[in-house]
Amino acid sequence: MAMPGAQIEALIKTGLPDAEVTLTDLAGDDNHWAAHVVSAMFVGKSRIAQHKLVYAAIGPQMGGDLHALQLTTGIPK
Question: Is residue 33 within 8 Å of 23, Cβ to Cβ?
């Protein structure tokens, strides 16, 4: 099952309300995505901790409806 980008973005923004999310559909199938997420909530956190916050926001759909997510994170400038 595929997950549309708008749904991924909505889940991330629910968990990280200030997030700026840029999504790219890597395979054109709504199943393999690249996401760049920028949030002030990442300040002072390791890259792993930042990624865990994003995965927690997506919830159980990660690995289910959403098959693959290439993730990069950053803090606002």
Answer: yes
pLDDT tens figures, 1-57: 688 999 999 999 999 999 999 999 998 888 889 999 999 999 999 999 999 999 999
What's the domain range around 44? 5-74
Tell me how far apart the alpha carbons of residues 74 and 39 are, in angstroms, rounded to a whole number.
Answer: 7
The predicted-structure confidence for 3-15, as pLDDT tens digits, reads as follows: 899 999 999 999 9
Q: Please, is 55 exposed, middle or buried when counting C-beta atoms within 10 Å of its C-beta (0-12, 13-18, 19+)?
A: middle
- Count of the separate structural domains present in the chain: 1
Give the Cβ contact number of residue 48 at 10 Å.
9
Query: What CATH number is attached to the domain comprising 23?
Result: 3.30.300.90
73 sits in which H/E element: strand 68-74
